[in-house]
Design brief:
It is built from 26 helices and 23 strands. It is globular, with a radius of gyration of 29 Å. By secondary structure, it is of the alpha/beta class. Strands 7-14-13-9-10-11-12-8 form an eight-stranded mixed β-sheet. Strands 16-17-18-19-20-21-22-23 form an eight-stranded parallel beta barrel. A six-stranded antiparallel β-sheet has the order 3-2-1-6-5-4, with helices on both faces. Helices cover about 45% and strands about 15% of the residues. The structure holds phosphoenolpyruvate and magnesium ion. The site of phosphoenolpyruvate (PEP) has 10 residues, from strand 17 and helix 21.
């Protein structure tokens, strides 16, 4: 047994060794062998729970195993450890009332038993058992070691396939929602070549290496143009401009000549490329200007792209060739990866890292591809493993069996059917049976999602997330560039209200060219209006661009994110006045827009009483408001199951905001995820919300609900919910309400 101070060392050594092994079978073998030798026991066995809650023996050091072994749910000491969720450490196992003999393991030779539950995110996923011939319980120190080990082990083994009789079982992994919808397909890895681990090698033929370099440049230029073209039809100009950055970097003589020089110095092409790309990346990294500094990432990406093409392994393209339904998987799935797959084949995205608002999620939303982000590193992945991507719940299923696939396929089919059935409601009003009308707006952020909003009958844009055009570029867009993008929004929504939000970056939304680093709590830091008021030149440029784009006819409403104080509002209003004066002075026809505060920071609620003369309306950002009320990070998969928008505290606060807004005669809307959630909409209807804004594909579904539930009934249900203190009870009541009105298909 290792000395106390070595426990951590022992654990990290074991973890490292296990992770280096190529298959789950070898990994579990290693775990049981190592534990047995470290703790000094005759047996160490790892059981993992399968879908039926049976405990499947994954590997054992010491037990005889002639065939598959599993202990029925709740049976034996293993079952007791799992259900009691605490270690059981006894000298004479066979005398314990729960003892259950595991057939065919020659277990009778071992008298002592110590079982430790493996717990992940509050759920028991398996049990680690050590046994000895001697009738002697484990020392407290060894038991402590196993408890510590097991807490680490649970994360290590959580994604392993629990196999019985060789059949893969459904393994769920939770991430965060990236983009709604369900996709079933074969996983294709976005495995980018790693130029930066390439060694130096002597160059055999300098002239031909230089010729290869020029050919490579041409080939990658062509690829980039093709990718840009593929996506150009789907996405806005600003998105595809990322490709232009790559193109101009490739045409840069400094880069071309630097690689040539390295080859002439005797290095082979990959070595010369690595040295040159590293040289330029370091050069940018050393710059003071944050925009230029961030360019080093572009160079890094480009280096890997050149190397992948050099290796001739445009593996992604080859791999998707014979696959009909592709799920792209990677640490980060890049725009190039998405562009490389024909859009009719791409059914889902899985990212190891990233949040619901990361770049990839934003694109997935715009393209309507289900996506789950932040699932963590999936171990031992191979191309063409089957996956279910459930973007609605933010989960993926690895190794789904046929039954589960057909269950999810049924959901996909039902969803399609429902959408086509409801699409006839597009031009109908969202009017309750007792005559209460709700305006149905859409959330947008890419030019590509302007048309779906109109297709599904949006009466306006309730939230235009302007950061998206900023996120997909390589530097801040100029006033003219912004104006061009915003003008297209006003043209598409001529005569309809457009709520444009000022730049809401910071927190989890980072601009590649203006990273905000070194913040211990980014969600509480330099984000939203706090950032733009401190970078007033950016805000002025943006407001001018909005005003110019709206002109005299556009129905512009400016939304301010993360507002928490009167001073922020006053500073903004003053800036707006100045912008209007400047533009009038430049003889540009503009008019004063309406200004609204987003209710996202709880502090804003009690400030509303002071704001009625400062703002024209409020819009509830329920995603952030819930995050800050509950002190739960909306992008942290560990606490995702606790982040429930129907938490009683959220409902009470929303009810309070609605009442205050009414008291101070401030029109109020809601533009967070709640607006698209049938349960939440019953409550919002009960509160008397008159404008909801949601993603385009949810519009007709929510309208259908509103057209079936009387507002008075919704109000009664709200009153009942306000008396409940548990989310489950609230959900139960809302579920029953939908069932009572025959609306269960909306859930
Ligand atoms: C919100 O917080 O509810 C909201 C709509 O803003 P975002 O999701 O962009 O933070
Ligand atoms: Mg927000």
């Amino acid at each position: 047994m290792p000395a106390k101070k070595n426990v951590i060392l022992e654990l990290s050594r074991l973890q490292k060794e296990v992770l280096e092994l190529p298959s789950p079978a070898l990994q579990v073998r290693k775990i049981v062998d190592s534990v047995s030798s470290v703790v000094g026991t005759d047996v160490c066995t790892l059981y993992l729970e399968d879908n039926n809650h049976d405990m499947v023996l994954m590997a054992s050091h010491g037990l005889v195993q002639t065939g598959p072994v599993s202990i029925p749910a709740g049976k034996g000491l293993v079952g007791l450890v799992a259900s009691s969720r605490h270690p059981i450490n006894i000298a004479r196992a066979s005398e314990h009332p729960s003892f259950y003999y595991v057939e065919g393991t020659a277990e009778e030779r071992f008298r002592s038993f110590c079982g430790i539950p493996l717990v992940r995110y509050g759920k028991v996923i398996g049990v680690l058992v050590v046994q000895r011939r001697e009738a002697l319980a484990l020392s407290a120190e060894s038991e402590g070691f196993l408890v510590t080990l097991s807490s680490q082990l649970a994360h290590l083994v959580a994604d392993m396939p629990v196999t019985m009789h060789g059949a893969h079982l459904n393994t769920y992994t939770r991430g965060v929602r990236g983009s709604a919808g369900i996709g079933i397909g074969l996983g294709i890895l976005c495995d980018h070549g790693d130029l930066y681990s390439v060694p130096d090698e002597p160059c055999a033929d300098i002239e031909s290496a230089i010729a290869d370099w020029h050919r490579l440049l041409q080939q990658v230029q062509l690829e980039i143009r093709q990718e840009q073209h593929n996506l150009g039809e789907l996405l806005s100009e600003s998105v595809s401009s990322i490709f232009s950055t790559y193109s101009s970097l490739l045409a840069d003589q400094a880069l071309i000549q630097k690689v040539e020089l390295e080859i002439r110095n005797g290095n082979w092409l990959p070595g010369a490329l690595r040295k040159s790309m590293q040289y330029f990346a370091d050069m940018f990294l050393a710059m003071e200007d944050p925009y230029l500094r961030a360019r080093h990432e572009d160079i890094h990406h480009l280096g890997n792209k050149l190397f992948t093409t050099f290796q001739g392994s445009n593996s992604l393209v080859q791999n998707v060739d014979e696959v009909d339904h592709v799920v792209l998987i990677g640490d980060e799935v890049s725009i190039s990866d998405i562009a490389a797959v024909p859009s009719d084949k791409l059914v889902g995205l899985i990212c190891f890292s990233g949040s619901s608002l990361s770049h990839t999620a934003v694109l997935a939303n715009a393209l309507g591809i289900p996506a789950v982000m932040g699932v963590g590193q999936l171990k031992n992945l191979r191309n063409r493993e089957r996956f279910i991507v459930d973007g609605n719940s933010g989960q993926i299923v690895r190794w789904p069996n046929e039954m589960l696939c057909s269950e999810f396929q049924r959901l996909i089919d039902e969803e399609r059917l429902l959408l086509s059935k409801l699409s006839s409601l597009k031009d109908e009003p969202a009017l309750t049976p007792d005559g209460f009308e709700v305006r149905m707006f859409t959330n947008s952020g890419l030019l590509a999602d302007l048309s779906p909003g109109l297709k599904y009958g949006a009466q306006g844009i309730g939230l235009y997330r302007t950061e998206i055009p900023f996120l997909v570029r390589d530097s801040f867009p100029s006033e003219d560039e912004q104006q061009l993008v915003y003008s297209q929004v006003f043209t598409a929504y001529a005569g309809k209200p457009v709520y444009m939000r000022t730049l809401d970056i910071g927190g989890d939304k980072q601009l590649p060219y203006f990273p905000i680093t070194n913040e211990a709590n980014p969600a509480l830091g330099w984000r939203g209006i706090r950032f733009t008021l401190d970078n007033i030149q950016l805000l002025m440029t943006q407001v001018r661009a909005m005003l110019r784009a709206a002109g005299e006819d556009g129905d512009l409403h400016i939304l301010l994110p993360m507002i928490s104080s009167t001073e922020e509002l006053d500073t903004f209003n003053q800036l707006l006045t100045e912008a209007l004066e400047q533009l009038h002075g430049e003889s540009i026809a503009v008019k004063r827009p309406k200004v609204g505060a987003m209710i996202e920071v709880p502090a804003a609620i009690s400030q509303l009483q002071f704001w009625q003369d400062r703002i024209d309306f409020v819009s509830i950002g329920s995603n952030d408001l819930s995050q800050y009320l509950l002190a739960l990070d909306r992008n942290n998969s560990r606490v995702a199951s606790r982040y429930d928008l129907l938490h009683p505290a959220v409902i009470h606060e929303l009810d309070r905001v609605m009442k205050l807004a009414r008291k101070y005669r401030l029109p109020i809307s809601l533009c967070g995820e709640m607006a698209a959630d049938p349960f939440a909409v019953i409550l919002l209807l009960g509160m008397g919300i008159s404008t909801l804004s949601m993603s385009a594909t949810r519009l007709v579904r929510i309208k259908y609900l509103i057209r079936h539930i009387p507002q008075e009934k919704a109000h009664q249900v709200l009153q009942q919910c306000l008396q409940l203190d548990k989310v489950q009870d609230i959900r139960k009541l809302l579920h029953q309400t939908l069932v009572d009105y025959g609306l269960q298909e909306l859930i």
